[in-house]
Amino acid sequence: WYKKLATKKGRLEAGAFLVEGDRAIRQIVSSHPAEIIEILALEEPLPVYRNYNVHLITESQCRSICLTRTPQGIMAVVNLPVDIGSGSLPEDIGDKILLLEDIQDPGNVGALIRSAAAFDFSGVIMTENCADPLSPKCVQATAGTVLSVWLRRTSHYLELASALRKGGYTLVAAELDGEVEPAILYRQSKLLLALGNETAGLSKTLLDLADYRLRIPTIREKAESLNVAACG
User: Fold this and answer.
1) For a Cys staple, 110 with which of 34, 142, 225, 226, CB 3.0–4.6 Å?
2) φ, ψ for residue 40 (rounded to 5)?
3) How far apart are CA 86 and CA 160, in angstroms?
4) Alpha-carbon distances, residue 89 vs 82, 113, 212 (angstroms)
């Protein structure tokens, strides 16, 4: 049952996903303690976990459940975020939103969710072609911040972007040949920042919808582009 949580089907059936590692779990304990269902551990865990149901497991069970090369010996089963697959916005949207279009590497998606949380963004909108934010590699890359922002992974992302613009948000699209520099971000009271696919960048449809096209000044002769997570 725990191994199935590594698959999207298993997560949907269980209504839960796995978080590996003491540091990541502590982040969820501090921000969303009620979302943790149970703890799996090789040995009796620290007092910070005393309020949770703890299952002791063997090293072979741990290796079987974990997908990481070096299991950290402790995992948490956590409730799936509410409405992650919804095509509508939450009631409390917040002032800064990140939009990810077809970013396929789970490490990049996880790192961008982590950055969004660190810079006080409220939510992340993703296309269905984005890496699943609740897959093990992506969750690991978020370092426990996956619940710190609301998430939407939907084919209706363009409709959500349009709705946000109508609601007063400025859509800033990151593009290699953009006209404005990052200072534009600080002038927006309501911001929707869009980052695109690792190879193709943002779609023409989304670029045409943008209020501004942003570029990060770099030495193109030395490096044509930045990794999308570093760009974010």
Assistant:
1) 142
2) -110, 130
3) 11
4) 12, 17, 22
pLDDT tens string 45-101: 788 898 899 999 999 999 899 877 777 889 999 999 989 999 999 999 999 999 999
Res 47: pLDDT: 84
Mind spelling out the 3-state secondary structure of 184-199? HHHHCCCEEEEECECC
Residue 221 and residue 131: Cα distance in Å, rounded? 31
Closest to 87 measured CA to CA, from 153, 39, 149: 153
From the CB of residue 71, how many other CB atoms can be counted at a distance below 10 Å?
18
CB 126 within 8 A of CB 134: no
Tens of pLDDT, residue by residue over 181-208, are 999 999 999 999 999 999 999 999 999 9
CA pair distance 84, 81, nearest whole angstrom: 6
The Cα–Cα gap between 84 and 86 comes to 6
β-bridge partners, 171: 192
| Cα of 91 vs its chain's centroid, Å | 19
Give SS3 for 126.
Answer: strand
Alpha carbon distance 232, 228 (integer Å)? 6
Q: What is the pTM of this model?
A: 0.93
